[in-house]
Amino acid sequence: MRTHHLAVIGGDGIGPDVTAAALAGVRAAADRYGFAIETTEFDLGAEAYLRTGVALDEASTEALRRHDAVLLGAVGDPRVTPGVLERGLIVGLRVAFAQSVNIRPVRLYPGVESPVAGVSPDNCDLVIIRENTEGLYTGGGSISHPGTPNAVAIQNSITTVPATTETVEFAFRLASARRKRLTLCHKKNILVHAGQLWQDVVDEVATRYPDVEHDYVHADAMCLHLPLDPGRFDVVVTDNLFGDILSDLGATVQGGLGLAASANHNPRGTAPSMYEPVHGSAPDIAGKGWANPAAAALSAALCLAGLGERDGALALEAAAASVLAELPALAGPGMGGDTAEIGRRIADRVTDVDPAKIGDPE
Ligand code: NAD
Ligand code: IPM
Ligand code: MN
């Protein structure tokens, strides 16, 4: 039997709960499609950091590396200085495992209501492809005279042709397999150096994909066009920080952060890819059972797809979409069940859903 070895980092806040719910769906898909999942839990996140003073040690990184994929819940905790876990653990793993491409689908499933008027499943099916290791996330910089009226902070942004090309190549290949439209989103009217590099790379890669038409939208204008006219977009390729911000906006358009999935993808296959919801640890609702596990389940579906389990991936996506369509609310106390119950419903549905009918509320 095919066996996939999954590393699991539940993390902080709602992370462990949504991850456990997603894993129930993964196991149901494994049962239905005849493969095996072996999981290794990693004790990483705020508790481990508060105990050890280290966000991600070398031994954990190497142990994670030996797995076929990593499933992550979320990290971030009010007791830990912002950035320590987010940079140390998540960005650390994205860089260590060369996960240069972040795939963030924005899809409104049938039966789910978008908070934005006029958005429907027919006009909301796009994918944000975010460069995942560079830009302002490289973290270099300094602050002089901190805490004084003369403080000056410098935050470096690095953009290289290799990582940009890898991301843009992936985006064109995806667009070529979809509706053949690619939009570069940047802010090249102000960030002239990085913006020019992105545009040059897009223009160069475009010559290899003559079937894909491409255009350009500034990041600020994208905040208007994406919610008002999502049907205009197929694949949006963008840099790390713009992609981070736009994917929360995209999540809102598709019904909320509890529904938005992501894959931190290593396109060269040199290290495991990592799958996580777009949302964070949500300390405001942690422990209440109000977190929607659909984003984690849909991320786990992306994980199954990455592992080559296409049928299992489609069944898990269809199951999550079908359960979403019947929830009275998409998050919070009125969700129609707590996180674990919704997870069980998704897992049960994996067993008998028709994977071809994604999001069909019937
Ligand atoms: P957040 O995504 O955790 O929460 C934003 C809002 O969305 C909150 O009101 C929250 O209750 C709600 N929400 C999030 N996920 C939900 C779900 N599954 N179901 C229902 N509601 C949900 O963002 P934040 O509050 O800005 O950040 C909280 C912490 O998480 C911070 O420490 C931040 O750095 C961290 N963070 C981590 C990740 C990650 O691990 N990938 C991503 C984003 C933020
Ligand atoms: C995300 C998160 C992360 C990011 C943080 C937690 C490092 O917001 O995955 O969207 O900024 O990329
Ligand atoms: Mn984010």
From TrEMBL:
<feature type="domain" description="Isopropylmalate dehydrogenase-like">
    <location>
        <begin position="5"/>
        <end position="346"/>
    </location>
</feature>
<protein>
    <submittedName>
        <fullName>3-isopropylmalate dehydrogenase</fullName>
    </submittedName>
</protein>
<dbReference type="GO" id="GO:0000287">
    <property type="term" value="F:magnesium ion binding"/>
</dbReference>
<dbReference type="InterPro" id="IPR050501">
    <property type="entry name" value="ICDH/IPMDH"/>
</dbReference>
<keyword id="KW-0479">Metal-binding</keyword>
<keyword id="KW-0464">Manganese</keyword>
<dbReference type="GO" id="GO:0016616">
    <property type="term" value="F:oxidoreductase activity, acting on the CH-OH group of donors, NAD or NADP as acceptor"/>
</dbReference>
<keyword id="KW-0560">Oxidoreductase</keyword>
<dbReference type="GO" id="GO:0051287">
    <property type="term" value="F:NAD binding"/>
</dbReference>
<dbReference type="Pfam" id="PF00180">
    <property type="entry name" value="Iso_dh"/>
</dbReference>
<keyword id="KW-0520">NAD</keyword>
<dbReference type="InterPro" id="IPR024084">
    <property type="entry name" value="IsoPropMal-DH-like_dom"/>
</dbReference>
<dbReference type="InterPro" id="IPR019818">
    <property type="entry name" value="IsoCit/isopropylmalate_DH_CS"/>
</dbReference>
